[in-house]
Amino acid sequence: MQFEYWLDNFWSLTVGGLTQGAIYALVALGYTLVYGVLRLINFAHSEVFMIGTFAVPIAWTAIGYGRDAHPSGLGSVVLLFAVGLIAAALASAATAMLVERVAYRPLRPKNPPSLIFLITAIGASVVLSEAVGLLVKRKPMGAMTLIQPKEVFTIFGTSVDNVQLLVVGAAIGMMLLLDQFINRTRAGRGVRAVAQNPDAAALMGVNRDRIILMIFMLGGIMAGGAALLYMIKVGSTKYDAGFLLGVKAFAAAVLGGIGNLRGALLGGLLLGVVENWGAGLIGDKWIDATAFVVLVVILMFRPTGLLGESLGRARA
Amino acid sequence: MTMSDTLLKVDNVTLRFGGVTALDGVDFEVRRGEILGLIGPNGAGKTTCFNVMTGVFKPTAGEVTFDGERVSGRAKYAITRLGIARTFQNIRLFPEMTALENVLVGTDARHKTSVVGALFRLPRVKAEAHTLPESGWRRTFALTFGVSRHIAEERAARAKALDLLSFVGIEGHADAQAKNLSYGDQRRLEIARALATEPKLLCLDEPAAGFNPAEKARLLELIRKIRDLGLTVLLIEHDMRLVMGVTDRLVVLEFGKKIAEGSPAEVRENPKVIAAYLGVPQDAA
């Protein structure tokens, strides 16, 4: 135990944890959306994220900003951010929709036990990560530094830089947009209808397959956003980069209450902060262990997660 | 009989689950503009018959046609869009949505704007002046460029949903969550939601279940009002007295077979029906 170290660095550990947690939260939304509507844990979602991370440097290189490029000026940074976001969101959404069409939809009319979906989910996950692994010869891929970290302000003696602010701000912004979409639009109404009562929704003229495809698309877009933020923060990705992050994001979704959009946000931020505290308190190599121990402990006392499993009510 | 008199035709429908025959050669039609009662003792296959008509089950043999179109084999949502709507014996609302939103889901069945159209607010349609704010840039903008079809549809849908809520008599609870409504109001909300899909045929599955006599009387009045809108109503009920008062014709099922069909007066006199309801063996009756 390094209690004093933890206390001295409390705020910097917290800020760092919030940044990481914002990325967990964005990925967690994909798990929660799909679970809310289908009661299915889409284990291939980690690969949806991973493919998004590859799309970012590929898109930047394609428009002339390779690894060593140094974008200058606010205009080009904003433009590159937009290009990265669109590329990652397209790649991730396309992957998510492909998984739904190939791995899940053909099974659905046969109404198999949910274990079968879990197996195809794991299968899809392995196929995707190995396929990307083959394509890039299992080498990491780096992206240019879009934003040089620079201190913006200090809080309790800890400096907060622009990258951290951007990551947390962008993640929360995307979540607010999703929340509005689900709660305010007609398509969102269809999503909630299918989540709350699929049979009644179908008999009210809601096309369930279309809603499900849209759910995967939305989850993919959020994962794409996470992928861009991850590339800005970390700068490099690998074919298996989705695995641990995916498991943590899933843990975050469960922690907050799976099926519950706000739970994904809370669970993600909390998991990021707590695991960083654990790393500070016990040592860096305990970071992952802390995350999962916290998950187990919380589920012992609140088996439906912190905000409660809204079991398909996608209450947001 | 000409084509146009028949709205829905159940043509020799048989449905088997494994070894159990739930429906056995059931054959009847629903005529445009009538209130048809589908009655029979518990377990006679009334709800099953409903489920075949609304696409929940695919018949083993025979077929259902609606307005000249084949129903069997279509997706459930597509059948709704053909013009068949239903309520459920056990209430199936969207519990976490408001009453208004529940009805809006029904109206969505008739909307044309796609998600992409809604996002980009295209295509645009001419603005109807009375739906716009009194003054300000929004009004000027809408009058110049029109409003997006999505917005126009949303506004129309809200107005229609509110109308339907007052039609069934629960307009005061528009913003209450469906799960918090009283039992009777939930049943009424189900009817409003079904009407929102703009059906030609409304199927009500035991709408009076659990109602006291006063509520039953109000429900009968509502059913007549629905018919007066020009809709055809199919009513499942096992309370004989209720159906006698409101239906034009009756079809009686027992053990998955049709045992009688005709006006309430005819059916009431039918010995097979009396036997089925009183539980007397047929040969003794």
Can you tell me about this structure?
The complex is a heterodimer of chains A (316) and B (285). Chain A is mostly helical and 316 residues long. Chain A has one domain: ABC transporter involved in vitamin B12 uptake, BtuC (Orthogonal Bundle). Helices cover 71% and strands 4% of the residues of chain A. Chain A is built from twelve helices and four strands, in the order H-H-H-H-H-E-E-E-H-H-H-H-E-H-H-H. Chain A starts with a helix and ends in a 15-residue tail after the last helix. Chain B has 285 residues and is α/β, with parallel strands linked by helices. Chain B has a domain at 3-83 and 199-278: P-loop containing nucleotide triphosphate hydrolases (Rossmann fold). Helix content of chain B is 39%, strand content 24%. Chain B has helices at residues 46-53, 76-82, 99-108, 115-120, 137-145, 149-168, 183-196, 213-228, 240-246, 264-269, 271-278; strands at residues 6-17, 20-31, 35-39, 61-66, 69-70, 84-86, 124-125, 147-148, 201-205, 232-237, 249-254, 257-262. A six-stranded mixed sheet of chain B has the order 6-9-10-3-11-12, sandwiched between helices. The interface between A and B is medium-sized, with 23 and 33 residues.
